[in-house]
Amino acid sequence: MPGPSMNGGEPRESFxxxxxxxxEFYGLLTALVVPRPIAWVSTIGADEVDNLAPHSFFTVASVxxxxxQFTSVGLKDTLRNVEETGEFxxxxxxxxxxxxxxxxxxxxxxxxxxxxxLGIRREPSLSVRPPRVAGAxxxxxxxxxxxxxxxxxxxxxxxxLHAAVHREMxxxxxxxxxxxxxxxxxxxxxxxxxxAVREIKRVRFADRPGAPS
Length: 213
What we know:
three-stranded antiparallel beta sheet, globular
């Protein structure tokens, strides 16, 4: 069971995975690894039924080639569809779609399309078969690169074939975070919006005071 610790001179509570259920430790991890960007992933299965679901374990996995990665905890419809067809679209999860994104996390039967059930408007993708969310401010169209199963989860890697951003979200040709209004997941049932944005440049070692010339 969790017990007190005084390491570092400050009181801390200790948590050991082997002394907790997997679900309990999952709750701890998702409350500490925050904020997490959300991949709102659209797919289509071999049965031609499309699917839309949020995945909050999402990041960039490679720069060249451009590859993004999301994790499916368990065997979900998104993963089944990606493995069947080899394609998916990451739609940017933004603040204006908060309730709709949450609704797509419902465990609809596989034969039911979230687009249809929730009245979400589609638009065709340019390079893959799964549709985009028409109202999403930005999308990444991806071809499956590979999957990696770890424990009860599967990491899905997708090569970005095409990116599209609504023009009104661009400032000097670059996506503007404040305009995009991205959502993030926290712990429990908590979500976060962007909040204050701070900007600072990295300092090269050669520019540090006293660095050798």
